[in-house]
């Protein structure tokens, strides 16, 4: 029987709309649930914030990754990346399948821009080996991104067997696409939107996407479909658009 998996990647902007005009984490949770995804890759997830609870009466008491996962995604992993006096944020992976291992790596290129690589493994029924998942949010500057992609390549070579299914998703900030192509070639990856549409998805800014910042890379999967969840469809809940892909094991 063919095994398929439905994945979402979304930079949620800490649960706020563009320019932090409105807090929308509750609505965002309902919209994510409506997608019926098996695995969700999230960036800019607020793990803790000391003052938001006083400003917003319905600010969740639980960390955002727990609040979003509640009753739908049984397992989750969080990587604390940016830490400040009043809280911290980072990447998160939500999964319907058991997470059997997870590790967060500091891939910050300099002290002024904290970035992380969250690596998790999930046990999918019917598969002998775990599926490897990596959630990333790379730097704004190209030189820093190149260093981070080199660390990501090293991580895959050292920890992911060539025969294991792999999904790497997140906000790559690679609007020119050059670093992404080299990275994919080095690891034998396929970009989901490139596979289906012949080009990467335009995902930023969400209200009028012009730049291709977000990606879903896969190895050992066939991409069945891939789509951008547009603001016009009611997905104007962050400064990024969400990406959705359905994959089947090759």
TrEMBL record:
GO terms for biological process, alphabetical: GPI anchor biosynthetic process
The residue ranges of the Endonuclease/exonuclease/phosphatase domain are: 9-232
Pull one GO CC term from this UniProt entry.
membrane
> Organism, per UniProt?
Sulfuriferula nivalis
Query: Which Pfam families does the UniProt record give?
Result: Exo_endo_phos
Q: What is this protein called?
A: EEP domain-containing protein
UniProt signal peptide: none
Q: Which superkingdom does the taxonomy of this entry point to?
A: Bacteria
Which InterPro entries does its entry note?
Answer: Endo/exonu/phosph_ase_sf (IPR036691), Endo/exonuclease/phosphatase (IPR005135), GPI-anchor_lipid_remodeler (IPR051916)
Gene Ontology MF: a single term: catalytic activity
């Amino acid at each position: 029987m063919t095994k398929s998996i439905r994945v979402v990647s979304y930079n949620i902007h800490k649960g706020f709309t563009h320019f932090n005009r409105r807090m929308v984490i509750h609505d965002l949770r309902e919209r994510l649930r409506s997608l019926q995804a098996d695995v969700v890759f999230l960036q800019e997830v607020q793990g803790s914030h000391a003052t938001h609870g006083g400003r917003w009466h319905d600010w969740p008491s639980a960390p955002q990754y727990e609040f979003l996962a509640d009753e739908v995604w049984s397992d989750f992993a969080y990587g604390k990346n940016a830490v400040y006096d009043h809280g911290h944020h980072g990447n998160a992976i939500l999964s319907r399948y058991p997470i059997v291992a997870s590790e967060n790596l500091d891939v910050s290129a300099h002290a002024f821009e904290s970035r992380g690589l969250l690596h998790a493994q999930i046990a999918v029924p019917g598969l002998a080996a775990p599926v490897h998942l990596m959630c990333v949010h790379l730097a704004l500057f190209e030189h820093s991104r190149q260093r981070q992609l080199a660390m990501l390549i090293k991580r895959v070579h050292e920890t992911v067997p060539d025969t294991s299914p792999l999904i790497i998703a997140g906000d790559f900030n690679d609007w020119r696409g050059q670093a992404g192509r080299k990275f994919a070639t080095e690891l034998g990856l396929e970009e989901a939107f490139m596979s289906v549409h012949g080009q990467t998805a335009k995902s930023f800014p969400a209200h009028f996407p012009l730049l291709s910042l977000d990606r879903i890379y896969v190895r050992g999967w066939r991409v069945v479909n891939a789509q951008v969840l547009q603001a016009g469809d009611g997905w104007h809940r962050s400064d990024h658009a969400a990406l959705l892909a359905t994959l089947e094991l090759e």
